[in-house]
């Protein structure tokens, strides 16, 4: 008999897990605010937090509340701005992490030049000469089971800021920025990294090896899921669990939404990718109910304000995704359906995803016998909408038969 797992909210702060026998079906974990079955389940209270951005005024006293000083930049950036008075959220986040070196830098060793005018870019756009630098945030006891939190496209490790402190109470947790994002190196194409999906698979392997953990659970969100699944298929012996958050799981998911595909366009995409509001704010808020606070927006905008390399990397990744995503989604489906796939896999789905349709997801989980977790109040970026609840879900999933 298969089982369905409900998580009920009781008087205690710790949710209790109730297991019920059902008719044969794949295990499914469903979050809902409905009370018809006698359970009060997680529901996040709605908040009316509106994102606002002030336009530059005539007197010059008030500008965009952007997370970079006026002088910041590498000599090739279409956007500038100033930060409002008070602590700098991006710098505060940076202090919580560290740099890790992984994956060789291939190429001629020449200074990176922008792809439009061929101008040599500033220091912020140049990468290391031997191994790439990856920004990562690590918390928890290293002797406990390791969980690596992998952000989606386009995002940053910062998206897991609500998950990390809760999950680290019982697990060794690590979140990192992919190459091209956040504080990690952003090599220009043809100068050490071309942002093909195969390169990302290889780069992930270098990161996991550098972490030095024998067994690890991987949590990945969105369009980077097929990359992680391909890596995992070659290294099943290293994984305890694989948790996919709103991955492109059906053939219909293999096409990038217009909000992202615009960055792959010739010239127009290169221009739009240099706009911090379009490259960060719009992409994060257009795919679900997420309402971005100004302090959070400042962190996401920071890379696009301090270096033109962030935008050029976004443009290159978008082109690779548009070209290769279909084949990667097909391969991911085959891997997860294969009888040789032995990794305990769970799929968490925010039902308010405006980019990826839920149609076909439940059927796939039924056919592949993978656990399905439905979160009706979350969108594409589950960790942004329901960070605390997601931490509880992850802890519940990886606690079953964890091996170190």
Automatic annotation (TrEMBL):
Boundaries of every AB hydrolase-1 domain copy: 145-385
Keywords: Hydrolase
InterPro entries tied to this protein: AB_hydrolase_1 (IPR000073), AB_hydrolase_fold (IPR029058), Haloalkane_dehalogenase (IPR051340)
Matching Pfam families: Abhydrolase_1
Transmembrane listed as a keyword: no
A GO term, aspect molecular function: epoxide hydrolase activity
Gene3D superfamilies per record: alpha/beta hydrolase
Protein name as annotated: AB hydrolase-1 domain-containing protein
């Amino acid at each position: 008999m298969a089982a369905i797992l409900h998580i009920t909210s009781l008087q205690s702060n710790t949710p209790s897990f109730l297991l019920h026998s059902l008719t044969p079906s794949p295990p499914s974990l469903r979050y809902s605010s409905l009370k018809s079955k006698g359970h009060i389940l997680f529901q996040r209270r709605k908040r009316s937090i509106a994102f606002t951005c002030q336009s530059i005024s005539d007197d010059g006293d008030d500008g965009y509340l952007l997370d970079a000083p006026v002088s910041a930049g590498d000599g090739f950036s279409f956007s500038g701005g100033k930060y409002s008075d008070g602590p700098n959220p991006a710098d505060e986040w940076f202090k919580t992490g560290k740099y890790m070196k992984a994956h060789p830098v291939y190429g001629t060793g020449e200074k990176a030049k922008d792809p439009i005018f061929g101008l040599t870019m500033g220091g912020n756009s140049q990468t290391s000469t031997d191994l790439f630098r990856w920004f990562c945030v690590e918390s928890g006891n290293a002797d406990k089971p390791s969980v690596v939190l992998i952000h989606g496209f386009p995002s940053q490790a910062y998206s897991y800021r609500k998950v990390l402190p809760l999950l680290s109470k019982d697990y060794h947790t690590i979140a990192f920025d992919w190459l091209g994002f956040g504080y990690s190196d952003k090599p220009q194409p043809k100068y050490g990294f071309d942002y093909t999906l195969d390169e990302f698979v290889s780069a992930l392997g270098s990161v996991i090896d550098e972490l030095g953990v024998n067994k690890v659970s991987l949590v990945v969100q969105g369009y980077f899921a097929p990359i992680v699944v391909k890596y995992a298929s070659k290294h099943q012996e290293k994984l305890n669990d694989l948790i996919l958050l709103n991955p492109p799981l059906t053939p219909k998911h293999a096409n990038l939404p217009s909000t992202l595909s615009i960055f792959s366009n010739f010239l127009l995409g290169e221009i739009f990718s240099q706009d911090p509001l379009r490259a960060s704010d719009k992409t994060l808020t257009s795919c679900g109910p997420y309402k971005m606070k100004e302090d959070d927006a400042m962190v996401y905008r920071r890379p696009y304000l301090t270096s033109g390399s962030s935008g050029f990397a976004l443009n290159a990744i978008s082109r690779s995704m548009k070209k290769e995503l279909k084949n990667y989604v097909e391969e991911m489906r085959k891997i997860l359906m294969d009888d040789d796939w032995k990794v305990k896999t769970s799929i968490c789905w925010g039902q308010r995803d405006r980019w990826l349709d839920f149609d076909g997801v439940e059927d796939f989980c039924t056919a592949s016998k993978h656990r399905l977790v439905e979160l009706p109040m979350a969108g594409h970026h589950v960790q942004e909408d329901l960070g605390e609840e997601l931490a509880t879900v992850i802890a519940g999933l990886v606690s079953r038969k964890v091996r170190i």
